[in-house]
Amino acid sequence: MKPFDCMLTIVVPKSLEEQLIDRLLEHSESVVGFTTTQVEGHGRAVKRHGIAEEVRGRSRRIQVQLVMNSEDAWLLLRDLKSDFANPEIAYWMLPISAFGRFA
């Protein structure tokens, strides 16, 4: 088993949540699991969808976090970029020094 040495975070508009989750589940060989969280995007670069988001000044987003092998993360990103060519999707990768379970 490859070491889990990075955390990949992907932030997408709420409207793409189900499509992204379906795509991640298709990568069962490298994506062991992930966590999703509802977040809100702020700033000039964030596109707002609808009047409610314009008034609130922020946009609903889904944040997905995956702890995985960094080589697999780069391959996953390559596939996702070709499937979701969208400037509203952001990602970042951070190294992790440890990952485990309590039992």
Describe the structure.
The chain is an alpha+beta fold and 103 residues long. The protein has one domain (6-95): Alpha-Beta Plaits (2-Layer Sandwich), CATH 3.30.70. Helix content is 28%, strand content 30%. It contains 3 helices and 4 strands. It has a 4-stranded antiparallel beta sheet with strand order 2-3-1-4. The longest helix is centred in the last third of the chain and has 14 residues, at 70-83. The protein is globular. It starts with 5 loop residues before the first strand and ends in an 8-residue tail after the last strand. 12% of the residues are buried. The mean pLDDT is 89.
Please describe the topology of this protein:
Layout: E1 6-13, H1 17-25, E2 35-41, H2 51-56, E3 59-68, H3 70-83, E4 90-95
Antiparallel strand pairs: 1-3, 1-4, 2-3
In terms of DSSP E residues, the strand content is 25-35%
**Low confidence ranges:** none
Roughly what percent helix? 25-40%
Structural class: alpha+beta
Oligomer: single chain
Q: Tell me the major beta sheet.
A: 4 strands, antiparallel
The arrangement of helices and strands along the chain is EHEHEHE
Q: Which fold name is given in CATH as the topology?
A: Alpha-Beta Plaits
From the coordinates shown, what is the CATH architecture? Answer: 2-Layer Sandwich
